[in-house]
Write a structure and sequence with these properties.
This protein is of the alpha/beta class. The protein has 13 helices and 10 strands. Helix content is about 35%, strand content about 15%. The structure holds alpha-D-ribofuranose and calcium ion (CA).
């Protein structure tokens, strides 16, 4: 099984990602970050999810409470005051670890081969780990993130929540050289929560009922998407996502575009959302002069473009059925 560290901000969709990961990947540990909720809540939520799915053997290491360069913005409008409103859960069966999440990431990646990092919250911990030990960019097998968007945002017109909450951290990560697999909102919006799936989960088992109660709240206000579960599903079954290797950079100073994952879609020919994206095209749409600084830069990110939603649904429902 692929060894992973899950860095997350549970978070309803983070919880679904944890349920997928714990059945298909070798989860070495969970690190938590401020994002959907305050760190004390995302950490407690991670402990409770692991208890609920019978994996309290997996340790939880609290990381950073929020960005170093800006106050934390939380998404309590989406996830509720606790960060994971909905299910009534018993208190965690054990405390989180005293070791800092960033230290756990650095120590584990530097001492263990072939570890994949999965980040489904703001990239604060990942960037901090890179600052502490730049070598992890070479030693980690890759970084799978839920974050950004190839040509759209959700928190702003241009930026997705995880990226814009800590844009400086994202900039550090995207300039680290680490192999990045980006599940942006352009991909994850292809992964809606379906009422019929919630009812299927409810009738399964204890974990299925827990998942249904999470999604009752998460999707209660209308359409919701399993953003974080997409990033983990891509790692579990690479055939679930069609991607393109493109250049991505992070906007830090734009008035309207701060936190945007500026994705160079020109190599795909369809460089506008409306055009049909041709993943095979070798045609380029570089209209700037050859010596222009705006000519396409070397690709640095595997950008998720298309999701096989039916394959995703099957993976998720089949996985939940394997729980007690
Ligand atoms: O924009 C969606 C992302 O922000 C997801 O990771 C969700 O959990 C929130 O953290
Ligand atoms: Ca998240």
């Amino acid at each position: 099984m692929q060894k992973v560290i899950l860095d997350c901000d549970p978070g309803h969709d983070d919880a679904m990602a944890i349920m997928l990961a714990c059945k298909h990947l070798d989860v070495l540990g969970v690190t938590t970050v401020g994002g959907n909720g305050y760190l004390k809540n995302t950490t407690r939520n991670a402990l409770q999810v692991l208890d609920m799915i019978g994996r309290s053997d997996i340790k939880v290491y609290p990381g950073h409470a929020g960005p170093c360069t800006a106050p934390l913005v939380i998404a309590d409008n989406v996830h509720g005051e606790s960060g994971m409103d909905g299910p009534q859960l018993p208190p965690p069966s054990k405390p989180a670890e005293s070791k800092h999440g960033v230290d756990f990431i650095v120590e584990t990646v530097m001492s263990t081969d072939d570890v994949v990092l999965v980040a489904t919250g703001p990239l604060t911990n990942i960037a901090s780990a890179l600052n502490k030990e730049p070598e992890i960019a070479k030693r980690a097998k890759g970084l799978y993130i839920m974050g950004g968007g190839a040509y759209c945002g959700n928190w702003t017109a241009a930026a997705e929540f995880n990226i814009v909450v800590d844009a400086e951290a994202a900039y550090k990560v995207f300039h680290s050289g680490m192999p990045i697999y980006m599940s942006g909102v352009n991909l994850t919006r292809q992964c809606p929560v379906l009422k019929e799936d919630i009812e299927t989960m409810r009738g399964m088992n204890k974990v299925g009922k827990f998942a249904a109660e999470l999604l009752d709240f998460f999707a209660g206000g209308g359409d919701a998407h399993l953003h974080d579960a997409c990033a983990v599903a891509w790692l579990i079954d690479p055939s679930i996502v069609t991607s393109a290797f493109l250049h991505v950079d992070i906007e830090l100073t734009g008035t309207l575009t701060r936190g945007m994952t500026v994705t160079d879609l020109r190599p795909l020919q369809g460089h506008t959302p409306e055009a049909d994206i041709d993943l095979t095209s070798k045609k380029r749409w570089d209209d700037a002069p050859e010596d222009s600084p705006f000519r396409g830069k070397a690709p640095n990110t595997h950008v998720g473009i298309r999701l096989d939603f039916e394959k995703f649904r099957k993976l998720l429902l089949d996985t939940l059925r394997t729980y007690e």
